Amino acid sequence: METVFNPLVGGLLIGTAATIYLLSIGKVIGISGILSQFLFRDNRMMQFLFLLGLILGGSVYGVFTEQTVPFPENRSPLLLIISGLLVGYGTRLGGGCTSGHGVCGISRISPRSIVATVIFVLVAIITVSISH
Amino acid sequence: MNAIITLLSGLLFGIGLAFSEMTNPAVVIGFLDLFGDWNPSLLIVMVSAISIGMLGYAIKKKQAKPLFANDWQIPTLKQIDSKLLIGSTLFGIGWGLSGYCPGPGLTSLINNPSEGVYFVLALLFGSGLHQLQTKVTFK
Q1: Which residues of B touch A106 (CB under 8 A)?
Q2: Between chains, do B19 and A24 touch, taking CB under 8 Å as contact?
Q3: pLDDT digits (tens, 9 = 90+) for B5-37
Q4: Cβ A58–B17 below 8 Å, yes or no?
Q5: Under a CB-based contact definition with an 8 Å cutoff, are residues A120 and B92 in contact?
Q6: Is residue B38 helix, strand or coil?
Q7: What's the complex ipTM?
Q8: Residue of A36, A122, A107, A25 lying closest to B47 (CA atoms)
Q9: DSSP assignment of A46-77, as one string?
Q10: Domain count along chain A
Q11: How far is A76 from chain B (nearest CA, A)?
Q12: Are A89 and B93 in contact (CB < 8 Å)?
């Protein structure tokens, strides 16, 4: 039951966050974009607040929910660094990540976002099947 | 008002990620590992989030302007170009390697700091590399 309930409710919360942000401020939530604006624009207060909320909200285990699967341990720093570089560069070149293209882009039926999401999900599936 | 909405949106988004355990790369890899012990969580999260997102977008179409801003700032690019294709491919490889996309990667700074520091530093560096290359200017 939890295996369906938790992702279902989690998704509803994510969709609600995107909707509140859209209808109030008029923008779509794209985390890679917000991060890059936080790093490189002059007026970065809003980006800071969003990322602060995201990190706080994303680490509230024990308050709203319990962790059912253990976090990975002892993975190679080199793997994490290569992964981070590819995610950081790739999301900016492709103009979005799982939030901007995946959730918000598909919600507004943007052909670019649908293409991007199909590609990064398929490539990630292939990457996992090769690396495992 | 915008500041409060922005903070709350981030908070709610993060709680959604944690509640669905998308903050845990093991769960994400469980979804991507189609040929292993498949975990459907990510698919359920996406469908559920997009359903609400579509509802939100339908409401947006009936609204002349945002509640607390003067105009909409929705992406307007239409062209499916090589940047989109190559960027999404690179992102897919990086995502598959660790199970972290940007949001869960950032939350790993607190949830799993021994991994988070490496991933996030590299994430910032990768994003910076693109910035250097293109010198995108933000409004």
Answers
A1: 46, 50, 53
A2: no
A3: 999 999 999 999 999 999 999 999 999 999 888
A4: yes
A5: yes
A6: coil
A7: 0.96
A8: A107
A9: HHHHHHHHHHHHTT-BTTTB---SPPP-S--H
A10: 1
A11: 9
A12: no
